[in-house]
Design brief:
The chain is of the alpha/beta class. The protein folds into 3 domains: 63 residues, Archaeosine Trna-guanine Transglycosylase, Chain: A, domain 4; 114 residues, 2-Layer Sandwich (Transcription Regulator spoIIAA); 193 residues, Vaccinia Virus protein VP39 (Rossmann fold, 3-Layer(aba) Sandwich), CATH 3.40.50.150. The protein has 12 helices and 20 strands. A 7-stranded mixed β-sheet has the order 16-15-14-17-18-20-19, with helices on both faces. A 6-stranded mixed β-sheet has the order 2-6-5-4-1-3. The chain has a 5-stranded mixed β-sheet with strand order 7-8-9-10-11.
Length: 414
């Protein structure tokens, strides 16, 4: 049996309370309140995690400015945290996505999904020949040079950008990648030149304009790819409502699937303009497929007053619960929103409704939807409970990674 001793040349932090079982089972986070650390330990330092008895437990990176103060990179005391470890894990992650990209109809996906790909806090999204990185805090960011070196070696990569998060995003209770928090600052080039602000990518044969410099997340909500495909499959002949439309991904999918019409509601005028351009890329009739800038809640009130109804409704709001403390208000908002959506359903309508907050678990979300259906006077049968696509994997030892819930409802009058 390998001795469980810390490295003599690395600083160490010690658990104050016993979360040994969770770490040994693979959970990659240790919160600050569970740790005792020496004063002055630098953010981004590679440190050994010791159990309460002083025995080696894990090796990872330190981030004193984050509630998640330690992120696990290895449980092996003989494995150094170095360029080779990062390169091996990025190569393995890219290989797992190779089949998705090999079909030729898709050139954008998540290449590295943080904790699930054994690089906690590190995200790499691919858009054509451009890789866009995000690091959730100073700990993961300490790996930046090794990540860039590894991504440069992947086939077809011509430039590497980073979308930094602002300090407010990094200080939330969970990484911004699991709370729906958009990147707050424009992209910077880490390797190669900055691209034009907007480019066009392919997803299952559809084309989308993406803003790699200023767009939400890294440019496109890649985690909704399979749910856009579902909407395309179910859209034929239907009148579609697309709320919180961003750049119109669900409306484009609906139009490609033969929807009779669609209305996309988006608060941001630049995003609404991009949605119109995305619909135009596919030759959608602008009279049938419209984009309306505005607040979704106010729009729903007006639509209910006008007795408008739809056959397929998509509701994909931003996170209402960026922290656990925000959950009570978020529950109220999700219930109110979904009740308003359900009031606009025609008989036999389908509703695809989503939550991107990891703080709201799937069971609680379903309970909120049941309550919303009662409020709206509708019967709603759950047809599917979905999540993100295969490039956003979820591992059993890290349930927090199941942040995206997408529930397909079939609705009838009560």
């Amino acid at each position: 049996m390998r001795p469980r001793r810390p490295a003599a040349d690395l600083p160490s932090v010690r658990l104050r309370r016993d979360v040994v079982r969770a770490v040994r089972a693979g959970h990659p986070w240790v919160y600050a309140e569970a740790l005792a650390a020496p004063r002055g330990l630098a953010a981004g330092a590679v440190v050994d995690l010791l159990d309460p008895a002083g025995r080696f437990l894990a090796r990872g990176v330190w981030d004193p400015d984050s509630p998640i103060a330690f992120r696990v990179l290895t449980l092996d005391p003989a494995e150094p945290v170095a360029a080779g470890l990062v390169a091996e894990r990025i190569a393995a992650a890219a290989a797992r996505r190779a089949e998705l990209l090999a079909a030729g109809d898709t050139d954008c996906c998540r290449l590295v999904h943080g904790e699930a790909d054994r690089l906690p806090g590190v995200v790499c999204d691919r858009y054509g020949d451009t890789a866009v990185l995000r690091f959730d805090g100073a700990g993961p960011a300490a790996l930046r040079s090794w990540v860039v070196e590894a991504v440069r070696g992947l086939p077809g990569i011509g430039r590497i950008l980073e979308r930094p998060f602002g300090r407010t995003a990094r200080r939330r209770g969970r990484p911004a990648s699991l709370t729906g928090t958009p990147a707050e600052r424009p992209a910077v080039a880490l390797w190669g030149a900055l691209p034009e602000r907007s480019g066009v990518v392919r997803e299952r044969g559809l084309r989308f304009e993406v803003d790699l410099l200023h767009g939400h997340k890294t440019g496109l909500y890649l985690d909704q790819r399979e749910n856009r495909a579902l909407v395309r499959e179910r859209a034929a002949g239907r009148r579609v409502l697309n709320l919180f439309a961003y750049t119109g991904g669900f409306a484009v999918a609906a139009a490609a699937g033969g929807a009779r019409s669609s209305v996309s509601v988006e608060l941001s005028r630049p995003a609404a303009d991009a949605a119109r351009r995305n619909l135009a890329l596919h030759g959608a009739d602008p009279a049938a497929h419209t984009v309306e800038p505005g607040d979704a809640f106010a729009w729903l009130e007006r639509a209910a007053a006008a007795r408008r109804t739809f056959d397929l409704l998509v509701c994909d709001p931003p996170s209402f619960a960026p922290s656990r403390a925000a959950l009570p208000r978020a529950r109220t908002a999700y219930r109110r929103l979904n009740a308003a959506v359900l009031q606009l359903t025609a008989p036999g309508a389908l509703v695809l409704t989503c939550s991107c907050s990891s703080h709201l678990d799937p069971r609680s979300f379903l309970e909120l939807l049941r309550a919303a259906a009662r409020d709206a006077g509708r019967r709603a049968a759950v047809r599917e409970v979905r999540g993100a696509g295969e490039d956003h994997p979820v591992v059993p030892w890290f349930p927090e990674g199941r942040y995206l819930k997408a529930v397909l409802l079939e609705v009838s009058s009560s």
